Amino acid sequence: MSCCPLPAARRALAAAPTNGGCSQGIDHDWISVPAGTYRLGGEDDDANPHDGEGPVRDVRLSRFAIAATTVTNAQFEVFTRATGYRTEAERIGWSFVFHDLVAPTARKRRGRVAGLNRWTAVYGACWRRPGGRGSHIADRKDHPVVHISWNDATAYCAWSGTQLPTEAQWEAAARGGLVGAKLPWGDELTPAGRHMCNVWQGRFPLEDSAQDGFHGTSPVRSFPPNGYGLFDMTGNVWEWCADWFGTDPRTRGGHDPVGPAAGSRRVVRGGSFLCHASYCNRYRVAARTSNEPNSASSNIGFRVVTVGSTALLAGCDIAKLD
Fold this sequence. Notes:
Layout: E1 30-33, E2 36-40, E3 57-61, E4 64-67, H1 73-83, H2 88-92, E5 94-98, E6 119-123, H3 150-160, H4 167-175, E7 202-203, E8 207-208, E9 238-244, E10 254-255, E11 266-269, E12 288-291, E13 300-301, E14 305-307
Parallel strand pairs: 3-10, 9-13
Antiparallel strand pairs: 1-4, 2-3, 4-14, 5-6, 7-8, 9-11, 11-12
């Protein structure tokens, strides 16, 4: 079983129309992350040895600004209306939905995919219809957009004048100023019994007790932000990063690392509403995994960054930029 399903299919990506304006009037609520040296990576006993979380290393980063939340359905809708862009899931005609989130009226593809027993291939499932036909985002405009491939995310970035974060940028931001903590707020998942993120409670994958108030995605500001003011850096949805996935620490250290020069899978970080300590336990801030660039499912989304001097960013709405 996988916490992110395998790619639905391979399709050539039609490039989205590009406009040079910064963020196209979308308020991403930018948060500044200062230039400096950040201690990244982990050597946690809970880590999957194949994920390459370690070694712990010092990484120097230039200043950048990152969106306070993942891109929402409302924001992605602005993009599609302006450009006519259709996501890969829309063009392919189906996507993967976790088994108990499939809309009752949705039509399922026949057959099973090895290793994906709890995932269902659903006709019509896409960002507009996250559970398949019969579901809609009308009451989920402030939820993270899902069923988004890496290719779809970069198309949005090209149009909005933004970028996907590098893996190093993502982790530095996720830590929120803490050094060595397992989570964006400390080491305990529920300090003093308080739920700090949207992850699975109960017996995974059979029963989600939803003690945190949500089964499936939650609105993007439902839980407290980290020390930088960033929401959902753990849980809710996996977030695409710019980097190819690799485990060689030489490609993930130094100054502004961008990962391996090539690969077959892109990095995703942060875990999702499906993460549980008994299963993947990848909601820890150092945890990492990957997926193929044309993969999409009901628990993968993205957030964006922008870089450059204050002068270069003058056209953006960066109310919180230093």
